[in-house]
Amino acid sequence: MRVLSIDFDIIMAPCINLYNDMAGEGQNSQINWEKILYERKLENFLCYDSKILTDLFQLLKQQDCKFEFIESHADIVPFITEKCDLTNIDFHHDIYYQKESTEKFADNKWTCANWVSYLEYKGLLNSYYWIKSGKSQGFFGEFKTPFEKDNSDKIPYLGSFDKVIICFSPNWVPYKFRHLYDLIKVVFSEKC
């Protein structure tokens, strides 16, 4: 099975590093954005990459499979029910940012920052291919599943998938760009 996962935060590549350190998981995203905008004075600097957005539309138009729409990348785990080759278009690798203990995973606890490691722990990954921005932080850790990355700042032709899962990521995408995600959701909702 081939699964395509898209985190909408990839469109924020031009400016995400201005606030990435403050966009924490588990917090109320609206309150968090108020804090970011107040402390960093970023309102005039928030922009998205229209080329990446266009590339995503082109890629999605080529797919003839079931689409799922989720808010947080942590919500993806229930949709991966069999071993798969996972392609993740995402500003973040989501493998882990602090080394996770398998004891935590044994209790079925995962987050938007470590869901890829959780899927590996559960034996649900044949391979993991991360398409990232050239501005993304690299992964420097231990990962048993065959792992490739592409940071060309262009979404390559990826072929067909059996399932597409698109995540909004409200902690990393400002609400003023929610309409772009909603547009994708409306255009491709007939594939749900």
Give the gist of this structure.
It contains five helices and six strands; from the N terminus they run E-H-H-E-E-H-H-E-E-E-H. The chain has a six-stranded parallel β-sheet with strand order 2-6-1-3-4-5, with helices on one face. It is of the alpha/beta class and 192 residues long.
Rounded mean pLDDT score: 90
Q: Count every helix, treating DSSP H or I runs of 4 or more residues as helices.
A: 5
Task: Give the helices and strands as they follow along the chain.
Answer: EHHEEHHEEEH
Biggest sheet strand order reads: 2-6-1-3-4-5
Strand content: 15-25%
The helix-and-strand class reads alpha/beta
Helical content (DSSP H or I, runs of 4+): 10-25%
Largest sheet: 6 strands, parallel
Q: Describe the global form.
A: globular
Q: Return residue spans where pLDDT drops below 50 for at least 5 consecutive residues.
A: none
Radius of gyration of CA atoms, rounded to a whole number = 16 Å
In total, how many beta strands? 6
Distance between the termini: 17 Å
Would you mind describing this structure in some detail?
This protein has 192 residues and is an alpha/beta fold. The protein is built from five helices and six strands. The protein has helices at residues 29-40, 50-61, 102-106, 115-121, 178-188; strands at residues 2-7, 66-70, 84-89, 125-131, 147-150, 163-167. The protein has a six-stranded parallel sheet, with helices on one face. The radius of gyration is 16 Å and the shape is globular. 37% of the residues are buried. The mean pLDDT is 90.
